[in-house]
Write a structure and sequence with these properties.
With about 375 residues, this protein is of the alpha/beta class. The protein is built from 13 helices and ten strands. The chain has helices at about 10-20, 45-55, 75-80, 100-110, 125-135, 195-215, 220-225, 245-255, 255-275, 305-315, 325-330, 335-345, 355-380, and strands spanning about 35-40, 65-70, 85-90, 115-120, 140-145, 160, 175-180, 280-285, 295-300, 345-350. The strands form two sheets. It has a seven-stranded mixed beta sheet with strand order 1-7-6-5-4-2-3, sandwiched between helices. β2 (about 65-70), α3 (about 75-80) and β3 form a beta-alpha-beta unit. α9 (about 255-275) runs parallel beside α13. The longest helix is centred in the last third of the chain and has 25 residues, at about 355-380. The radius of gyration is 21 Å and the shape is globular. The structure holds pyridoxal-5'-phosphate (PLP). Pyridoxal-5'-phosphate (PLP) binds near residues 71 and 146.
Length: about 375
Amino acid sequence: MTISGIPIPSFRVLVNSLMNKSINDLLWFNNKNGMSLYYFSKGTWALKKGIELLLDKNGIKNGKIFVPSYICFEPLIPIKNDNINIHFYSINNDLSPNWEKLESFVQTKFIPDVFVLVHYFGFKNEIKRATDFCKKYNIELIQDAAHIFLPFEGLFNNITIYSPRKFLPIPEGGILAIPKNIVANAGSTDIYRSDVFFMMKWILQISIKKLLIILKFSWRKIIDKYKKNSNDIYEDISKQYPISFSIKLIKSLQSNFNQIVVKRRDNYKLLFNKLSKIDGIEILFPDLPSDVCPFMMPILVFDNRDTILEHLKYNGIPAISWPELPGEVLNNKSRYKNTIMLNENIILLPIHQDITRSNIIYMQDTLKKKLKSCETVNTVKN
Ligand SMILES: Cc1ncc(COP(=O)(O)O)c(C=O)c1O
């Protein structure tokens, strides 16, 4: 069996989007709070713009920002290019910020200009504590909701970034949401690229993927021959604004948003039921609060993680590890113990809207058999 790592748009949605002339009036969510929405090619650019606006607002050049140590290095590239000083703060093993260390840091070293709070895998992080901390030290708060599909209460009071491309079958898409009382006017909200070659390439890629899935052909067996880890391919982050086709696709998909949330939640619950009975796995978020739309299911596998991950991929399951951490974190293992522990043991399993019940049973069986065989090998070795 081969499972796609991303959802694939239906033929109807593709044709609707290609025929649609208008890209205006896209409302990402019920914007009753009147936030200004800016569209980018990726969450990476939304994050850079959000930080830039907060620094500009306070007249700061080359500001200092706090970013959690559990973050991939790629979204930080444009920020680093702006000569912004990034301090990576420690996290607890449930991914919440380590407030004791943060308090001690700001009291003994320096107070940053901006604090980035990340919500991981669709689950809410500690918004109230982050708000209180930022108020206490007069720091600007930005919420990184790249792993959140639709916003919930608590995400409307700060500048927030989203990455719809992680949830929807679209080639690109990042959003910056700005409350009017924070920045009244951040410039034009509708800058798009018209890149026909990029669009055609993407349509061709997903069409081939769809065909291979129908034919049950595992392309990973071939791809894996040429590269070790599919996380190793870095994406092109050079284009800041999205192609207009992405916005048209989002518009065509909007009426399905509720169904997408329901399907992802059902998949998460079913996978949780299947995996919770297997020894050797810890599920990082065992509870699924009613306002959560999960991005992926993070599990921890403390023995033979890499072998198991490779086995899953080889068998057509698009499981991934966390992409590469920033060098400053990787080179300071004793300071960032929890981050390193998570990085070394995590496996992210897909639960997106195209995943079926039989895909989930297949993931359970494959994982269970491999864990058992690894356990047998370990017993024989001992
Ligand atoms: C926590 C977090 N923030 C921001 C981003 C950047 O989003 P995008 O991939 O849309 O650039 C990522 C990317 O994976 C991420 O994991």
